[in-house]
Structures are given as structure tokens and as C-alpha cells.
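Cross-posted from the bioinformatics board.
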Amino acid sequence: MSRADLMGLLLSFIARLITGAQGHWKGCPPTARQRIYFANHQSHLDWVLIWAALPKDLRTTTRPIAARDYWTATPFKHWITREVFNAVYVARQRTDDQDPLEPLAEALRHGDSLVIFPEGTRSNKGEPQPFKSGLFHLAEQFPDVELVPAWIDNVQRVMPKGEVVPVPILCTVTFGAPIRLEAGEDKRDFLDRARDAVIAQRPRGA
Amino acid sequence: MGALRRLAPDEQVSLLFLILFGALALVSVVTALWSLRDREGKADDTWKTYLRDLRAVWIGTVLFWLAWISGPVGSTVFFGLFSFLALREFITLMYTRRSDHRTLILAFFVVLPLQYAIVATRHFDLFTVFIPVYVFFAVPVVSALAGDPERFLERNAKIQWGIVVCVYGLSHAPALLLLEFPRYEGRGAFLLFFLVAVAGIAQVVQELASRWLRRRPLARQISRSFSWRAWFIGAFVAAWVGAALYWITPFKAGQALVMAFIAAGAGTMGEFVMKALKRDAGVHHWGNRSSVTGAVGLLDRVAPLCFAAPVFFHSVRWYFKL
């Protein structure tokens, strides 16, 4: 077992100890099909939570998106995103000659699953912000990949913005039924529908 | 009896676990055979609850055994972990605000480990006052420093309650394991077993009694089954069971009767109080039924112990001047 595997075990253990990281597969079973999971984004811990909620054998093929400038800045950050999480790096600054979605498309062509947060940034107002269009373009290019909505609950209480130490509070990740891009569906309509699908996974009473 | 008394404490404790596991295995075998029979009622809730409870008793017994064989450090670590999980569940269902963050960190990562470190080192005087005096003072100070006056008293009260029930109350269980009675060295496991046994019996008997009596519930909004008579029958039966178990404790038969009554009565009362808390938080089980959280329902299991253990511990310690 390599150091990266051990680190992965340690991180998922910590995530479970602090948050429970319970995955509720309400709309689809956790199978090895190629998928794009898209979820609400409230905290830095969101990715680790989804990752820990996945069954162990899906973790290696399910990859997060990481901002290249930030996550390759120090050797440790680079190592943890590359070796442990197998992240897909994207550039935050848009350059004219390159499609920012190209690294994601590359990973999908390779057969990997992705986790994306289509709001683009963390929100802490409860309701997710409008989705950015990346999800639409990926759905257009890869019609066979399942699009699975997910709601991450309670995580904003674990680590509010600006705090470093997490407080142990139970969180859940609820996975809904896959959605697909309908023929000729408008971009805005699709993105709103995707956002509604995420909100629909929110547990009652939360 | 004479042969039993001549055994070394270690052997007596081993025998206790042998009997416990034997009885559980027997019940499980009967349950398995029963489940093979084609019965209509098998899918109903009573059966499911029964299976759930049986599993919980198994887990509890195994943990009790692990806590015992791993010695003072191991057992405090075990119960410390329990406390952590119970407090996590408690806080999850309570209303907290961003400004409670530091206070919660204090509760989880300072108070909890310190309390258990004090237990492990057998500083029972400090152990008794650490949370009621020092932490009671420290929590509102840290909260006030966060500078958020909104619902200040309520938020603090909730955190204080969580600490007292989940940390202070539960930490008395390993304290019983480590309490040193003259001429009773090395038999702490019996004391904890005595407490858990009488508290458990009181719970079961009270439940059965309330079904059988069908009395008008005392506080319908909180519990549909609690009545004074059912409570008394539960504690009374548990007291006699306790008296019958006196030979595993350092007590005389009469003392065991009274101690068992106190512990059992406190446990069932504590369960009642926890029901009120749950109603307040808007859940039926602490567990995951309401799908608010990913809790496993641990708090439901340990609640009676959280209330019975401190009352029992301090009654014993005060009466025997330890």
C-alpha cells in the first residue's frame, strides 16, 4: 500500500469521524457507471465529503476538479491532489486559445467519473446560486454519461467560512436520480432544471 | 457460591463475560430459529425493533468486554469515543450559530479529552467538579468572546446540556470501572455490569408495565407510556434484581437494593427527560429515521446510562466515603 493510499484512508476516516459522511443513494445505486456528480457547494469540505461517502472502489475512478494555480502551488498540495484524489486540473484564468473544459472532457473520454460544483463558488445563503454553463456543455458532448444530482447537507455548520478547525456535526450526501439533456433543450432551461434536481435532494426539515 | 468466591478477580470477571455471551448466543440462536418459521408478523415494527435491540445489546456487550480487557486507558478511550459520537449526535440536532463554532471546538476537543484524562488518572475529586464548575464557567466566556448576543442563553444552555449529558454523565461509566473499593480491587467491571443490568431491566419492565397497565400517560405531549406506577414498577423490579445480584458487588443485600433502586429510577427518569429533549428538537428517534442526519441512534441507547451513571457513582462514593 502506497503512501497516497494510506493518506486516502486517513482522510476518509477523519471525514467519517467528524461528519459521519453518510451517502444516501435515493435515486440511483452506487455502481461503477461513468457519471458526473453535480452538487451544491458550501464549504471546502464538500469534495472530501462526497469522496468519503462513495464506496471505496468508486473513489479511484471519481475525480474532483482543482484550480491549477492554487493546488499546485506547494509540493504538498500538489501531491495530495495528484496522488490521493487524482484531481483534474483546470486553469482559472481563461486564455483565448484554450477551451477551459478541455481537461474535463479529456478525463471523461478516458472513462473517469467527475464531481463538479456548477455554482462555481461557495455559497452560504442556503439556496444554491445559478449554475454555470459547464455542466451543459459536458452533457452535450457526452450524452452517455449519467448526470447525478447530489445535495450535501449540514456541512456549512462543520466549518463556516474563515474557520480552520472543523466541529463534529453529522452530514449527509443525498444522491438523486440521474437527469439527461433533452433533445433541443435550451441551455438556461437545462441548467435551471439541474439546479432544481439538486435542491430536490435536500432532506426534509433541513 | 463458595467456589466462585475463591476464584481470582480476573477469573470471576471472565466468568461474568462467559455467562453474558452465552446467554446472548442462546437468545440469538432462538431468534434465528424463530425467524425461519413462516410468520406473518415478521415484517412488522415490533419484530424489527426487537432485532435492532438485540443487535444493539450484542454490540454493547462486545464493547463492554473490549473496554474491560483493554484496561484503564483502553476503557477510558472507548467511553471517550462513545461520548464523542453521542455529543456529535446531540449537537447535530440542536440549533447552533456560526458564532458557536469556538465554543463547540472547546467542548469537543478540550473538555471531552480532559474529562476522560482525569478519569483515567483516577483524580475523582477534580473529576466531580471539573465540568460543573470550571467548564460551566468557561463555555459562556468563550461564547461571549465571539460577540453574538442573539439567543445567547439558549445557545449556551444547549451546549452546556450536551456536555453534561454526553461527556459528564457518560464519563461516570469508566469511573465505575476504576473506582477502588477496599477488598474489591480489580472487580470494577461488576459494578458497571450491575449498573447497566439494573438500568436495562428497569427500562424493559417499565415498558411492559405501561403496556399492561394502560394508565393515562402523565405527560402525553412527551411520552405516551410514562406513568408513575409504571416507573415505580420498573425501578422496584430492578431493585430486587439488584438485591439478588448483591454478591457481585461490594454492597450488602440491603445496600444493593437501595443502590439499584436509585440507579434504575434515575435511568428511566433520564430516558423520559431525553424524550422531552427529542420532542423539542422535533425528532422521534435520535437516529436516522427523520433523515435529518446520518446518526446511528447512539444517543437513544446511552441516554439512560448518562443519567443513571453519575447518580449511582456519587451515591456509592458518598455513602461509602471513598
